[in-house]
Design a protein that fits this description.
The protein is α/β, with parallel strands linked by helices. It is globular. A 6-stranded mixed sheet has the order 1-3-2-6-8-7, sandwiched between helices. The chain has 9 helices and 8 strands. Helix 4 crosses helix 9. The longest helix is centred in the middle third of the chain and has 18 residues.
Length: 252
Amino acid sequence: MAGATGGAGGRQEAEAGNGPGGPGGPGEGGYDATPFLPGRRARLPGLWKAAARCRGCPLYRDATRTVFGEGDAGAAVLLLGEQPGDQEDRQGRPFVGPAGKVLTRALADAGLDPAQAYVTNAVKHFKFTVPEGRKRRIHKAPNLREITACRPWLMEELRLVSPEVVVALGASAGKALLGSSFRVTEQRGALLPWPDTVRDGGSVPDVRGLVATIHPSAVLRADDRERAYDGLVADLRVVADVLGGPEGGGGR
């Protein structure tokens, strides 16, 4: 995402061996990133390096690399998307494609500084399909099993960043935090209580709340883009209000 800081340093080393020819995974049918987590003393750079070698689900086999979160390590706002897209997979950074540009503009219009947010995805590898006779990789939504497998990385990001507010961008991000019954159309644009299921036995600090909204890619797909964009900005303004007005969203 344009304007986000941090996270890029040391990535080249972290990405080594991440392709299909890298070390083997937990075995056929293994869906759990927990064995690949570093020790509890690891900070975000340590997580980046460990995640680059994650084989916690089969998605790593076709993806170019792991795309971990980046941004302000002390951010008041953590923005959670679904998974990396084509450009994110190629560049190794979250929200650098067209949807990322929409998100950056929407944050600024809502009174939130994009450079003082932390951005990540519920799933760290690009899931896609290639239609017969074509070369272009087409996004394919991750299933609940893949989201759950990647959840340990998200829990560590939440623990270390310790944001005041989390923004769930789209249905998959909401389901990663609130479960399979989450519906973005029914729960968007309001400060929702931080779910007990995410407290992780006390290791994830209490968050003031969760705000759900559409994924910025939904703006690009909408028939009425202006209306969809205005709705996204309105939802993000709820976050700014929670943080103390239009100048909210700064690091701490």
